[in-house]
Amino acid sequence: MSPRDDIPQLRGLDGEGSVQVHQDEAARIEGAMVFSVYGKGGIGKSTTSSNLSAAFASMGKRVLQIGCDPKHDSTFTLTGRLQPTVIDILKEVDFHPEELRAEDFVTEGWGGVMCVEAGGPPAGTGCGGYVVGQTVKLLKQHHLLEETDVVIFDVLGDVVCGGFAAPLQHADKAVIVTANDFDSIYAMNRIIAAVQAKSANYKVRLAGCIANRSRDTDEVDRFCDRVGFKRIGHMPDIDAIRRSRLKKKTLFEMDPDEDVLACRAEYLRLAHALYTGTDALSPDPMPDRDIFELLGFD
To answer: Is 71 among the catalytic positions?
Structure first.
């Protein structure tokens, strides 16, 4: 008997070489449109997610935003504060979820957006996929997904493991936040590959990318043209967005100066486009060497 006889056949599951656990059918989110927001660490995913949530709420949609980051700061511009994470609250009751009430882990934010911070495992231990799974399970147990129109997962940084790719198992569409620079586009290429792997077994498809904090979009557009992707939004690097974070508010609560109104209009346009349905994209991610040749300096 060869030692390799005990190695399972993984080809064709959640990406070749994957050891991920497939989603329990009981955990499926039904009825709502589900979006997962990804991008390089620090690129502005939480700002984008919160302002999209506010835009959907302005359209009259019932919205739930789930932050998937140990920093648990995804929703603080909607609520004005950092709220405790699902994992921290579960620890307090020795992981007996039946002892919890919905208000223990859900905070109502601006426009009625329901805000949840899943949190993450302790540093160097555990798996983000477990955290996401426990959060969705808890939301279903409390029937909080039954009257929701839109769910937004705001997910930790670059996709480097199956754990933080777990929201893709629930999502209808994945949105990538990027910037007009090499590192952001490199991360976007990896995220495209992760979504493509998940799409072999789940309904998730790519909606497109949002160029954030960028005066220009030429490098993003060049990459998109090369791989068959699409830029669906552009948020310039303006001070109103920085100020909104400092004031713990979304742009929809800020005083309506010219920049704020322009940003609101772009988020509302994006929310409408996402809700009415964007084309399902199937780009072909590039090998690392090809990205360097495309975007690298001479």
So the answer is: yes
